């Protein structure tokens, strides 16, 4: 199981992520969306290296029934990522590929920060288009 420190926890929802033996993800959501003061404001998500604005929480989207996925690449590295409809702070590079895709019928390309070129996740294109941004590589910044 992947352990998150307090800085990586999403305040809106607590997620428990586990991987089964085939690399498929299992997700349990515990909704903590409303507080006594009302819903939390949408925050900007910025690159953890240079602070460039990548997207906002308003751009979160569900893909195959969930917003957060955990997958293992062929080299054995586990990634926990959240799906976003738009990420204008990303630069998409490389040829679209179906090799080792995590979403059947979807091509993928590398998505990097347009300012510092840090690898932030992937751009997927299939029935829909979305960004899968790696948790911890994009971080929340309060709206002013």
Model description:
It contains no helices and 13 strands. The strands form 4 sheets. A 6-stranded antiparallel beta sheet has the order 7-8-12-11-10-9, with no helix packed on it. The relative contact order is 0.21. It is globular and about 35 Å long. β10 (107-113) and β11 form a beta hairpin. By secondary structure, the chain is mainly β. The model is unreliable at 1-39 (pLDDT under 50).
Distance between the termini: 35 Å
Instruction: Indicate the radius of gyration in whole angstroms.
Output: 15 Å
Count of alpha/pi helices: 0
Give, in spatial order, the strands making up the sheet with the most strands. 7-8-12-11-10-9
Stretches where pLDDT is under 50 for at least 5 consecutive residues are 1-39
What is the helix fraction of residues, given as a range? under 10%
